[in-house]
Amino acid sequence: DTAVSQTPKYLVTQMGNDKSIKCEQNLGHDTMYWYKQDSKKFLKIMFSYNNKELIINETVPNRFSPKSPDKAHLNLHINSLELGDSAVYFCASSEHITGELFFGEGSRLTVL
Amino acid sequence: AQSVTQLGSHVSVSEGALVLLRCNYSSSVPPYLFWYVQYPNQGLQLLLKYTSAATLVKGINGFEAEFKKSETSFHLTKPSAHMSDAAEYFCAVIWSGGYNKLIFGAGTRLAVHP
């Protein structure tokens, strides 16, 4: 069983479209995250949820809206996609504040 | 501002040679430190972590790292490189007192040649 799973793994879309990436973890963790990895491999945190409550929002444009229906799921919806949104988006989860982050395999978004 | 610096975006070693990947952090409070590895087209996998126990931390695949507070460093080493070690390596820090906000360094690509 995959601990942290993301869908889709690849996403190619046109500028201006709206798309979603889904994430599920079966580890029983309370905290989930979205990270963005750019073309230079730099990883930056976007959001974090703890028990469905948003606890970290790193000045991400309003076009990005995370949603956590329950503590095992954290989805990312992106409106009006722009070229600069092209990246690999990683979902992760952790058990507690100093716990190890478990990462999904990433969702590669390409905006044309 | 809190930051993590990895010296050297690319490191190349021969198979069997010592691997040394450098990481320095800026912090006024004790951090929690991690090394993650990313193989091509995959997610990140934890190699090892320092959480204020022993300063020398042993991880998976023969890697280890030493926390040196006086040098604010957490360098990653492996005595003998293997071809399968070729990957991107990330140093990361969580500062105590806040949420689990993992801050990554820019990464170091390790190449291993025969």
Helix fraction of chain A?
A: under 10%
Helix content of chain B: under 10%
The geometry of chain A reads as globular
| Structural shape of chain B | globular
| SSE order of chain A | EEEEEEEEEEE
The secondary-structure class of chain A comes to mainly beta
Order of helix and strand elements from N to C terminus of chain B:
EEEEEEEEEEE
Strand content of chain A: over 45%
| Share of β-strand residues of chain B | over 45%
Oligomer: heterodimer
Please outline the major beta sheet of chain A.
Answer: 7 strands, mixed
| Helix run count of chain A | 0
Total number of beta strands of chain A: 11
The greatest interface here is: A-B, 26 and 26 residues
Query: Which stretches of chain A are low in confidence, meaning pLDDT under 50 for 5 or more residues running?
Result: none
Low-confidence stretches of chain B: none
Question: Distance between the terminal alpha carbons of chain A, to the nearest Å?
Answer: 34 Å
Q: How far from one another are the termini of chain B?
A: 41 Å
Work out the number of β strands of chain B: 11
Question: Please, could you describe this protein's structure?
Answer:
The complex is a heterodimer of chains A (112) and B (114). Chain A is mainly β and 112 residues long. Helix content of chain A is 0%, strand content 56%. Chain A has no helices and 11 strands. Chain A has strands at 4-7, 10-13, 19-25, 31-37, 43-50, 53-57, 64-70, 73-78, 87-94, 102-103, 107-111. Chain A is globular and about 35 Å long. Helices cover 0% and strands 56% of the residues of chain B. Chain B has 114 residues and is an all-beta fold. Chain B is built from no helices and 11 strands. In chain B, strands 2, 4, 5, 9, 10 and 11 form a 6-stranded mixed sheet that branches. Chain B has strands at 3-7, 10-14, 19-26, 31-38, 44-50, 56-58, 64-68, 73-78, 87-95, 103-104, 108-113. The model of chain B has no long low-confidence stretch (mean pLDDT 90). Chain B is globular, with a radius of gyration of 14 Å. At the A-B interface, strand 5 and strand 9 of A face strand 4, strand 5, strand 9 and strand 10 of B.
